[in-house]
Design a protein that fits this description.
21% of the residues lie in helices and 27% in strands. The chain has 3 helices and 10 strands, in the order E-E-E-E-E-E-E-E-E-E-H-H-H. The strands form 2 sheets. Strands 1, 2, 3, 4, 5, 6, 7 and 8 form an 8-stranded mixed beta sheet that branches. A two-stranded antiparallel sheet has the order 9-10. Helix 1 runs antiparallel to helix 2. It is elongated, with a radius of gyration of 20 Å. The N and C termini lie far apart (70 Å).
């Protein structure tokens, strides 16, 4: 008889992880090994964790994000999988995060410095500074009122120039804008 794999409940405290959405049939017939008070179900294996939940993002003392399937499934409950090596330490003080921009989809997100895709070019920041910059970038992407103070031919080019500076330098937004006017 195979022993059921179950990690310590403390294994996930203060962690950052990006789960990939998978099809629900991956856990068909498998009983959840843990169910949280908020209704999430957890399924553990030797290689990683499946989490079935209707909420992702900040969870108690951890930051867990789900990358949705494309096209996105209609169900409110999504099944995500993450390998054990995808869980990284998190705290509010250390410079653990960098910002990643998808110019095609016009989306911005943060990633952990231990992510194997990190090339060392984007500036590392703590949680607060990362969140602040992401909010500024989203405002640049979604609003146009800020652009009336600039002379430009292509608004998207101007946005990209400012966003690039926000991601790859320590300059504050006001300084970047001043240099472009």
């Amino acid at each position: 008889m195979q022993k059921t794999f179950r990690p310590s409940s403390k294994s996930f405290k203060n962690t950052f992880c990006v789960f990939q959405e998978v099809l629900i049939n991956e856990i068909e017939g498998v009983a959840a090994q843990y169910e949280s008070k908020s209704g999430s179900s957890y399924f553990y294996s030797e290689i990683g964790m499946y989490r079935l939940s209707n909420h992702w993002g900040r969870l108690a003392n951890s930051k867990w994000r789900l990358v949705a399937l494309e096209p996105e499934s209609e169900s409110k409950f999504k099944l995500g999988f993450a390998s054990w090596t995808s869980f990284y330490p998190d705290n509010a003080l250390d410079e653990l995060y960098y910002i990643e921009m998808n110019h095609i989809k016009k989306t911005v997100n943060y990633q952990h410095k231990n992510n194997p895709d990190y090339d060392g070019k984007a500036i590392l920041r703590n949680s607060f500074e990362t969140t602040k910059r992401i909010k500024q970038i989203r405002n640049l992407l979604n609003l146009t009122s800020w652009a009336k103070y600039f002379e430009y031919e292509d608004l998207d080019d101007l946005r990209n120039e400012i966003i690039t500076e926000l991601i790859f330098t320590k300059k504050v937004l006001e300084e970047i804008k001043r240099e472009l006017t």
